[in-house]
Design brief:
Oligomer: single chain
Structural class: mainly alpha
Radius of gyration: 28 Å
Helix content: 40-55%
Distance between the termini: 68 Å
Number of domains: 2
Largest sheet: 2 strands, antiparallel
Length: 102
């Protein structure tokens, strides 16, 4: 059977939507309080306790670089060229923008 979420308010459970069509009227249900950390964080990475922080650090250290060393070097080279071109044209481009507002 499927589950449905809701909110406990003023002694009643207000469902987020209608119950599934296959739920028979009068069916017994089970309510349990949702732990917001464990429900949204099945890997236990978002807690503030030392164990959760250690898990997050281990996960972070396990990440692999997005770019290879060659791709990173090429990206940095292009970025440096773009920066040099921007700085070389700064005065001309700033003047052109100022002229648009006069």
């Amino acid at each position: 059977m499927s589950a449905i979420r809701g909110t406990f308010k003023n002694g009643q459970v207000i469902l987020d939507g209608p119950p599934p069509a296959d739920w028979p009227d009068g069916a017994e249900v089970r309510l349990e309080l949702v732990d917001p950390v464990s429900d949204d964080d099945p890997d236990g990475l978002l807690g503030t306790d030392p164990e959760s922080i250690a898990r997050w650090l281990a996960w972070y250290e396990s990440l692999k670089p997005f770019l290879t060393e060659e791709e990173d070097a090429e990206w940095r080279r292009i970025r440096a060229e773009d920066k040099a071109r921007e700085l070389a044209n700064w005065e001309k481009d700033s003047k052109a923008i100022e002229d648009l507002f006069q």
